[in-house]
Amino acid sequence: MGLVVQKYGGSSVADAEGIKRVAKRIVEAKKNGNQVVVVVSAMGDTTDELIDLAEQVSPMPAGREFDMLLTAGERISMALLAMAIKNLGHEAQSFTGSQAGVITDSVHNKARIIDVTPGRIRDSLDKGNIAIVAGFQGVSADKKDITTLGRGGSDTTAVALAAALDAEVCEIYTDVDGVFTADPRVVKKAKKIDWISFEDMLELAASGSKILLHRCVEYARRYNIPIHVRSSFSGLQGTWVSSEPIEQGDKKVEQAIISGVAHDTSEAKITVVGVPDKPGEAAAIFRTIADAEINIDMVVQNVSAASTGLTDISFTLPKTEGRKAIDALEKNRPGIGFDSLRYDDQIGKISLVGAGMKTNPGVTASFFEALSDAGVNIELISTSEIRISVVTRKDDVPEAVRAVHTAFGLDSDTDEAVVYGGTGR
Hints:
425 residues; 8-stranded mixed beta sheet; 4-stranded mixed beta sheet; ACT-like_dom_sf; aspartate kinase activity; lysine biosynthesis
């Protein structure tokens, strides 16, 4: 008997009919001889509605109480799903993140999992039950407070449980049929990918692809847990994410030169103007940002002007952290010695990802030619062995993504990509 962990996103359990449809799929997996652990997100837009409600009550809710509020959404889902499964004649038990043994640090709203002790889950499985776990949440190791893992944290919950329970596979059910070569909402002719490596998936996730959370893929790679991304609205095979190619029939799926094109419009750009070009200045800037607990993405420093000895340093970061970063830099301006700050939140990032590009000359040239032909101006460039990313104007992103997708022969002959639920998770 194998053990399977399944995760269902908010669009899959958005209403009573969706919950009953998911319950039937879970029971089918149980009938196939598997032990089944299920991780669920909150129904539909419940989390967004709870956030809106909190903001109406308090503009700056306390982290502990905010987490206590947000975890209510997943508790509703897990209980209703357990009821639906029992109605189909099978036993199911629901567990909160803390009951399931998901232990985190004490950072509210974006906690990290530090351990999983799934004793109660194992006991429930040994009794023949289906275990339903609330995703996105855990309990802090020191204070025993309820914590949340940040948006998309249910994916990480599922992979962490799969690793702790030594599951054969972690199935991530969403509202599209798998991982596509681009966002099907932007590129109608995007192709479904049959298999993708952990490394390529990490780059796509970090570059804006929303189908899997970056932390989830990172966790899966660390513990070598295969992920199967598929739709809860169809019975089609999805996309396998693993360390080694899978076999379909009598042939092994080969890795493509280019895995896909990702985009992200959730970032902003800060330019620190008039920085003295001497050792220690960049360190002072980024130490200030780090002390404010802000993650940055791309960084570019201009060549200093010979006449002034000053340079400009630009970097990108989440829009939601923009105000905090500006305030931190302004507070430390005397220590750094820059002239001014520029803030721009009308940018977008386009990334080309593929392990094959490091051994195929001409990929970079073709990428920039496609953007040029589409009339897209480039502001920042960043590269790795398997990724090229550029920053451009936000309004240019859809056309840029389609142009690059076509230039690298990624277009499907038909409009293959179907978005069943409409939310992307």
